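User: I want to check something. If I give you two sequences, will you return the structure for each one separately, not as a complex?

Assistant: Yes, each is folded on its own. Here is the first sequence with its structure:
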Amino acid sequence: MALKKYKPTSPGRRHKVAVHTKDLSKEKPLKRLTVGKKNRAGRNSQGRITVRHRGGGAKRNYRIVDFKRKKFGISAKVETIEYDPNRGSNIARILYADGERSYILAPDALKVGDNVISGEDVEIRIGNTCALKQIPSGTMVHNVEVMPGAGGKLAKAAGSGLTVRGNNGKGYVIVKLSSGEVRLLNENCLATIGIVSNPDKLNVVLGKAGTSRHLGRRPEVRGVAMHAVEHPHGGGEGRNGFRVAKDIWGHKVGVKTRKNKRTQKFIIKRRPVKRDKK
């Protein structure tokens, strides 16, 4: 999908960049495949804010997306490619040969009228789902399971995908994540061929603060703009040199927090460390 720019008729439109939606369906989502979604505004069950900078935004219904793809051996035809307000990627509505309909993550280059299928010994084609052990090396996949039968957990964001590196001969398949990490996954984990749709989302420019509010994002304030009692970066006459980056509670930013020793053995190569430019 191509990007579109706007004429500078206002300050908010001068730098705005959006993704063309002319190829998406104009139909309303299938009602029985949607559920109401209440805006929690970042609050937990006790009403306390646990995720900051969330709230407001347009109302939306949640689309029930099938991340498991467990209907083996039954071909399905793509009826529509639709916009989903709950995620960056598009979704596809498919009609199975037995009459059942469902939503799936739409891979890039999937079109209306295409057929998709999941199961064993399926053709390696965009939109088809099979076990990792059946996918040849070098293939890009998305919606990948971490545990067999648990549903897709990896590579579900717009434009993301994993690269299959081959089987290690011990019941595991080597995959490379988009972060650069190389790890092992069970060879029976299901994966869908192709990358997720809408890769141009990374190039979108909102243009104005109002668009961010429509998406349910509230303003963030820089720590250096606060008083010293409000943030470790605050206070002082002007900016006070270099300090160790900390969050609002005084914890160091960028410190590794991964402590899952049970799965350490599955990581072959960690993602590269990002160095700050000076």
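And separately, the second sequence with its own structure:
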Amino acid sequence: MGHGVTRVVTVLFADVRGFTRMAASRPPQEVVTIMNQFYQASTDILLQHDACVDKFMGDQIMVVFNSPITAVDHADQALESALAIDVAARRLPGLEAGVNGLPVGMSIHTGEAVLGHVGSEEVKDFTAMGATVNTGARLQRYADAGEILVTEAAIAEMSRSVEGYERRQVEIPGAPEMLSVAVVRNAGRHG
């Protein structure tokens, strides 16, 4: 792919909250088992929505929509995926004794990204890079468990309405201005 191609994509970041505490308090094999269950459930959902699972990073998943599979409804697919991942995560074993479900916070952002292979001559990964990806990654840090923070740029691409959801202003380090986001939660789940 050379230097990559630029394309409008929607990125989704999903992060397990409390992972450091879980990793410190459980045997490593148990942590790996729980995370693999989360990754498998999430991947199954994402592949049904034409997503590219870009990478697993510790307790986080980076996902790209509209590449390599072109989809005019990529932002809608990202939100549908995030809602389904939230439901699936609540059905997995909990991080603490007696608790069901993994607490997951997510972000969705749309914009241009450079797509291509990066790395060394020996090892390369296909990935998305650029300000859109950086903003999506930083934004997910502000999502509490059960929250999906959706930027105005992603909302503008959606056919689904997110009217009526709580709005929040988020200051992203390095961003020129505050981001206005919709705080989307599954029905019956309010904080």
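Because they were folded independently, the notes below concern the second chain alone. Strands lie at 5-16, 51-57, 60-65, 104-119, 124-129, 148-151, 166-170, 179-184. The two ends are 43 Å apart (CA to CA).
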